[in-house]
Amino acid sequence: MTNHADAIVYRTFDGSDAQLPHGVLAELVTALGGRVSTHGEDYEKARHTWNAMVEHRPAVIAHCASAEDVAAAIVFAREHEILLSVRGGGHHVAGNAVADGGLVIDLSPMRHVRVDAASRRAFVGGGALLGDVDAATQAHGLAAPLGINSTTGFSGLCLGGGFGWLTRRFGLTIDSLQSATLVTAGGERLIVSASNEPDLFWAIRGGGGNFGVVTSFELRLHPVGPLVHSAIVAFPASQARDILVKWRAFTASAPDELTVWALLRKAPPLPFLPADVHGTDVVVLVALYAGDMAEGARATAPLLTFGKPHGHVAGPQPFVAFQQMFDPLLAPGARNYWKTNEFVDLADGAIDAVIDGGRKLAGPECEIFLASLGGAMGRIGSAETAYAGRATRYVMNAHGRWRSPADDAKIRTWARDLFQATAPFATGGGYVNFLTDDEQSRVEAAYGGNYGRLRDIKERFDPDNVFRMNHNIPPRERARDDSRGARPSTASRTRAR
What we know:
CATH class of the largest domain: Alpha Beta
Distance between the termini: 15 Å
Radius of gyration: 23 Å
Structural class: alpha+beta
Largest sheet: 7 strands, antiparallel
Number of domains: 3
Helix content: 25-40%
Number of strands: 21
Mean pLDDT: 94
CATH topology of the largest domain: Vanillyl-alcohol Oxidase, Chain A, domain 3
CATH architecture of the largest domain: 3-Layer(aba) Sandwich
Number of helices: 14
């Protein structure tokens, strides 16, 4: 992005550059009541994302406080053919929230969460973070199934499916979604639900930001907490195979209330671990029981018998605190690169490959996590929502995390090697919320048999592929075009020069 004295240079839909006079930008400034930035503190805050590898400079950031603001920004972008992106929490590893040289719709002014405890409903703004949702709902002893990092944006998590500690009991985030307010590529405001625009409602439950900008979500809530039973057990990496084989058998028959994930990494300075263990290779089991506290203690006790642990902690914990437990390991400011695979069953070969990847951790902040899913999530048909991975029972994420650009190649190679080593045992699909910026080729496989229907719906609601800054689903009739290069046919062909 370049500011000239009398114009702003921006990126168009087709990837070329054009100039926007400041006088024309004033139209958007007026429409949004001044909440537009091209530089300054608000601009810098909104242009940065969680992944420090993403260093984009948009031409314009529209800080939207309402669906009407969003509609005005979309219409403006289309009129001038400005590449458009949408920023909820800015947490996605691919960094698609910020269009380099484009116009960013920043939803952060919409962080409101309203809870109707009597009806067990929450109304969540498009810019809310998971921590905002947890704080509001837990005040009433209620919760929605969310992710594992409180600084994640709710919008991106939900639109991609959303799984975490409550998924086995209550399903994905999208399984609790009742309705959504969405602004289309034409600037039309729609309220979508199972009874109103049902095809579009089906598509946004897993189809990402391909179909419009969601400014508000209505969620069904569930009784959880405010205290839950949790447990963390850390074992030496030398015991990894025994631990993971026993964990696999244990999770295969676990009740829906119990979720146990496995993590291979260097031991963080956890207070229950001896100082000489800090920084050594460990296998950590993290468990949450979303039910009766005494039953949770009984259900998690066998984890201690899997091997000889370095240490453990177990007992009642506020659910809000548990949801923030991984925040220090996932704080913004680091460089991140992920590779993910999904499994119906975790074969011995997959376990061996994961253990080998753990031995070869490419940096002190790198980690491999294995999420145990199934339960309520798996009892919904793969065609009932756009999210297709309902049969997935285990997800592996090779999380490359580091600080220096000099380590880019080394750590990305480590993650890719682990991905390739586990691929023969995987489903071939993938969780779109974990796909990096170089994995557009995996999108069709991620949606499986739902991909064709998604493209048909894309053709109906965004035929010009205005919403392309994402893991893109191109419109059905645009298959021959580059998904990020096709110029919107309904946009004005006149650019201010």
